Amino acid sequence: MELLKLIKNRISTEWKKTFNDNVDILNRNARDQDQKIDVANKRISNLVLNSGGESPNEVVDARVNNKAVQFATLAARLLETENAHDKDVEQLELTQSDQQKQLEQLNNSIGIILGTYNASVSIYVSKSRGNDETGDGTEEKPFKTIQMAANLIPLLSTGTVTIFVDADVYLEDVVFKSINGTQIYIRPIQDWSVFDPASNDMPVKVRSISFTYCSGYFKVSGIQFVDTANAPFISGRRVSLALIQGGYLNIDACKFADSTKAIAFSAVYTEADSKVSVSGKTYFKDQNTAMTARHMGEIYVENSTQGSGNNIGVFSDLGTIRCQLPTSFATTQTSTGFQGLIITKGTVLS
Question: Nearest to residue 76, comparing CAs of 94, 63, 59?
Fold first, then answer.
């Protein structure tokens, strides 16, 4: 409501004019203040509720974060930020704890390697109980995968390493590479010798194992090879068990019974000055090729080896194979490629 002017004539004209002029000034000032208050209220409303008004100097709404997410109140935004900070701190603490466990595992592994150099080492693997991050390969704290056990073996050692594998299915392509001067045994924890591979499944099942650029003696016992259609390729064919460029491998009482007759496949493969012996009632069934020796690789097949339904028993391509296979072992018992040599009986030269 504006101020009222004087209108009665009994007041002097001069004083009335002065008074009324002052009223006009006050009313103008009041209107100016009302306009300023209205603008201020609008800007406050814009700040608190909308943000980013017409003025380039407008303050950014404190309820909106750097990702343009608007919160109901400033307190809600601050609470969200503090909770996120707490979660980050908690995650950092968990990460630090995990790194500490991994460091302890590494220290234990190094202790095994350095403390038992040239001595016998036992490494345990259990898919159900093991852990590759916190395990140390002991019977109490086994690894989860066979590959982790393989990675623990020193690159240079003259000791004996036995990898004990708990009964389970390990769909792994285990690779031993560039290991020199050692003996490596891979076997089930269970007593596998009571099983006949021809009539029993073996306790440990693995997709593939390969030894590459290694020297020394290796023995794989009591293992059944499964999921062979997904085994890795070597020289254009899938392979379950391979020895390439060095070392001596004994295959004892293993089982190859997943049908591979329709694909390019060899259950056992060796090449490049490597030697393999197959023994202990090892069993081959429905394989495209049971055993292959190439490029100066050698295979010796003991008479105890069993099998049936295979397309090709043994194939030699610039390699040497000594064998005397059972009559029903394969449709084609022996096959050779370029200068391959297969010896089925001994001859004394005089």
Answer: 63
